[in-house]
Amino acid sequence: MAQTKDDNELEILEKEIKDFRTTFKTACCSEPIEQTLGLRDLWLESISNLSDKWSKRLKEGDLMINRFQEYTNELLQKNKSIEEKQENLSEVLASIKDGEKQNADLMNSIQELKERLVRKSETKSQDTEEKLERLSKVEKTFKERTGLEIRKTCANHLQFIFRCIDHKDPDKPYVLTLSINEAGAYEVISCSPSLDCIEELQLKVRETNNFSAFIANIRKAFIALSYK
Amino acid sequence: MNTELKKELEEVREEIERLEKKDNDASMSALYLSQLYYRICPIDWDYSCEATLIKGIHHGPDIAQRINVDSSQHSRCFVGDYLWSLVPTTW
């Protein structure tokens, strides 16, 4: 009987302990734990949101930094390009200035030469005219008095036209055409009227280079022919 | 413009050269002829005398010889023959 009472008391105690435990657990543990869990979930959610937000901001920041870098590079390049263009411009301007100076020099040169040309036309021709007149007088005197006319032909030969050979016909021409060949020797191109001694005379003048005697002998031969 | 100016400059230079050459050519030709006559027949003419008188000096190989001929008194052929007689035919 006492043991049964003890057993009942023990059961009641155990039950009370259990109840107490349950109550304690409920009162002191479950609610705070749930609250804490709830807070933890809220905090996690909050953290997650912030992370997303900051992650996004970070990416935007990176983008901005990249863009900034790009703009900076572009700016640097543009500055460099501007510097180069300024240099080119300076060179072009210098070149234009040179060109203008050259033009001015050219125009001065042209003006000077034109003035020189005018002066030359006025004076040189007069000098030349006088000189030509003197020389023409010499030529005319020789031609009239010696009866010998010297002409240059189109083929660059020299023609010696003798007149006053035939006393009966003083104006009758006796013509010798002469040239200098490639070897630099006298060469009779033609003789009209022809002379038998022409080859001999040609040889003699080549040997002696005595042109005066050559012409004098030609004349003498023409005179001899005119008597025949 | 530079090219045109250079072209104009060149043209003016060429014109000057042409003028100089023309004058030179004419002078050279006349001078050459005079010298050739003198080489054949070395006579210094006296131009100060009367027109009918033929005066001068012939510079022969040995001696110089005065010339004094009245062309009004002689034929052209005579005058020519006389002057040519002063030119030696010996080589």
TrEMBL record, chain A:
It comes from Eublepharis macularius. This is Kinetochore protein SPC25. One of its GO terms (biological process) is cell division. Component of the NDC80 complex, which is composed of ndc80, cdca1, spbc24 and spbc25. The NDC80 complex interacts with mis12 and zwint. Residues 155-222 form the Chromosome segregation protein Spc25 C-terminal domain. Belongs to the SPC25 family. Residues 68-138 form a coiled coil. Keywords: Cell cycle, Cell division, Centromere, Chromosome, Coiled coil, Kinetochore, Mitosis, Nucleus. Acts as a component of the essential kinetochore-associated NDC80 complex, which is required for chromosome segregation and spindle checkpoint activity. Required for kinetochore integrity and the organization of stable microtubule binding sites in the outer plate of the kinetochore. The NDC80 complex synergistically enhances the affinity of the SKA1 complex for microtubules and may allow the NDC80 complex to track depolymerizing microtubules. It is found in: Chromosome, Centromere; Nucleus; Chromosome, Centromere, Kinetochore. One of its GO terms (cellular component) is nucleus. InterPro entries: Spc25, Spc25_C.
UniProtKB/TrEMBL annotation, chain B:
Keywords: Cell cycle, Cell division, Centromere, Chromosome, Coiled coil, Kinetochore, Mitosis, Nucleus. Residues 2-29 form a coiled coil. It is found in: Nucleus; Chromosome, Centromere, Kinetochore. The keyword Magnesium does not apply. InterPro entries: Ndc80_Spc24 (IPR013252). The keyword Hydrolase does not apply. One of its GO terms (biological process) is chromosome segregation. CDD domains: RWD_Spc24. Pfam families: Spc24 (PF08286). One of its GO terms (cellular component) is Ndc80 complex. One of its GO terms (molecular function) is microtubule binding. Component of the NDC80 complex. Acts as a component of the essential kinetochore-associated NDC80 complex, which is required for chromosome segregation and spindle checkpoint activity. Required for kinetochore integrity and the organization of stable microtubule binding sites in the outer plate of the kinetochore. The NDC80 complex synergistically enhances the affinity of the SKA1 complex for microtubules and may allow the NDC80 complex to track depolymerizing microtubules. PANTHER family: KINETOCHORE PROTEIN SPC24, PTHR22142. Belongs to the SPC24 family. This is Kinetochore protein Spc24. The gene is LOC129346535.
